Amino acid sequence: MLKLGDKNQILNFANTNGRRNDLINAYTIYMNILNESFESGIYIWDRFPNSLGQFHFYSRALEESKDVFQQHGPYDYICKKLELPEYREAFHNMDKEKIIQLEGGNDFIKKLDNGVEDRSRHYTSTLTKIGFIHEDRQLSSVGKLFISESDPVRNDFEKLLPIDKINLLLLRQGLKIRVYTDDYQKYYSPIMLLLYILFKNEKVNAKDLFTLLNTITPYFPFDYKEISDSFSKDNVRDVIQKYEKLFIAEPLVEGKRLEKEEFYKKFSNNKTSKDQHIYFDFYNKLLDFVTDPADSTYSQLEELFEDKYKKNVLNNTFGQKKKFLEFNVSDYNEFIDVNYDSNILSLDSFNSNFYIKFFNSKRNKDIHDYKDMLKRFTRATGIIEINNGVVNLAYRDVWIEYFKYVDFDGLIFNTDTKNSAAEYEYSVDSVFYKDVTINKIFDITDEQMNDIIESIKNKLSIDSVESIKKNLVNRNDILFKEFINSEFPLKKTMSILNMFSDRSNDKEIKKIVGSEAGVPTIYEYMIGIAWYHISNKEYDVFSSFNLTMNANFLPETHAGGGAGDIVVKYNDNTLMLEVTLMNKNAQKRGEWEPVLRHATNLTIDEHPKKVRTLFIADELDENTINIWRAVASVPMKSTTGKKDYAENLIIMPFTTAEIITLMNRNIDENKIFTSIDSSYSQLKSNFNSNWRNDIINSF
């Protein structure tokens, strides 16, 4: 759950030790570990010596995220100690007293608690905040759905949206998040406010939006309509400054210079008194400059910051340890322009703004650090587009009609009771932990939803619900193709694919692609884009990807285990691309069965259309690909419960280098298919399905 201990604490979706850029990938990894090791009862969620569960979780998290967690000194120390028989025995017997008696035992316990188990708690705390797990780390029903191969039940409006299961579940959970005060008397919904702002404003500044969403606290409810209007009136910073003044217990008198005694009294909270004279000197010289901007007053201010010690003191106090005023300018006019966002270069409310800058140093640093996590979460819902520092609502014309029926009063800021809040945040039967549609969250009736859909049909001049979805999907596909042509043209795509063979390029690949997803997911994404360049036939490129993308068409997480990675549906045939970065040895264990299963089931499901599967990896295991080749002569039975068989199954392996060669030589899908079919047609045979019975019966 999300509860702020005091008015200065801010909204954070992930603790400092639990933050990672591949947000959705992290959710999936952590919940899979909890599901496999804790739901089954193998471990209980507790710290040593009550359980080895939190140690086990951390071990698995490191194993599953080697590219993310590269430094883990305390864990390495623990593992080194566990190589010693006496440590290993005492640890697995959960004998804390015995460990303490061993050489280095106290350090072992300290590093285990602060460096290993605490990180497990931090990593999973995010999942409790969004309702995917309970406080005891048991998965909620919606958490189980998130990692399963099942799909959520969608209402008729949700069926219109061309977003996938992961997008939808994140959207629903985001809308249910409440940020409570410490006494549970008030709460605030940041995602509700975000959507209201985008409902009323077509485009908003990303920095202003996410700074504002993280600045707001349930301790000080605010007029959400005024907040929204500030974006259209271009006075968001004024509203933020107005809001920040609510944190001042006693408002400062404006229009007069503070005397030294008064200044020292006001500016003393948790600050060392030895530096107060520096703050006071800065206050006076800054006020002189703001009152009379000129070369002389600017020189006095600049001279103050030329003193190295004073500069460090002021940056630490007012800039969250960073430079908060830029002096690398040509004159004082440029200084004012460059530092406008500092909020302390105007006479209007100067004393209050200076005070806020002083006391909100840590809070503002936290806002800066944590707002990016909120941005990543909202973008992963698939309905929030963020491009070039501008935020807008995807499928806006559809959402506009929906939001006309939503009463936002009570959804953004509201009051509550401790019992009611506890029921909402802790009860296993709470809607917070259940899979419910957005209608229930927004309190929209079925009748209202039907009216909304009729309004959308009229707005888009479309006569059926099915056509609305088709219209949105087609629009998405057009935009996605434009995105590929602009951001990933042929030469750039080949250049990126060339980089995957060297895993030291992982960081650079993420930077070039602009995604923080796992590199295997990005590889899958780039192979799908490569096929778009190879293919001359028209197909729905966007829908061919079985991975979660955000509203900016960038990958978030890879496909689940129930279907192929990429499925290209042409009018007369179907192609499946199975993609992996696993090395040759890992392919034997991790790819042999899933690829065969996916190819078999898709061939049966798409019959009578011809189906081909291309397996693409950086390197290939010869035994695995030869077995797949041999399977072409054997009928394969469906694994979905059907009694049907797939004949002449085609699984053709390619390396990344070979895909790049095809692109370089401008070889299209027709030539590729012709060559594959010519080879695989030779493997057709009258296979005797009763061969085993014939042998048994001969005895």
TrEMBL record:
It comes from the Bacteria. Pfam families: RE_AlwI. GO terms for molecular function: endonuclease activity. Keywords: Endonuclease, Hydrolase, Nuclease, Plasmid. InterPro entries: Restrct_endonuc_II_AlwI. This is AlwI family type II restriction endonuclease. It comes from Staphylococcus aureus.
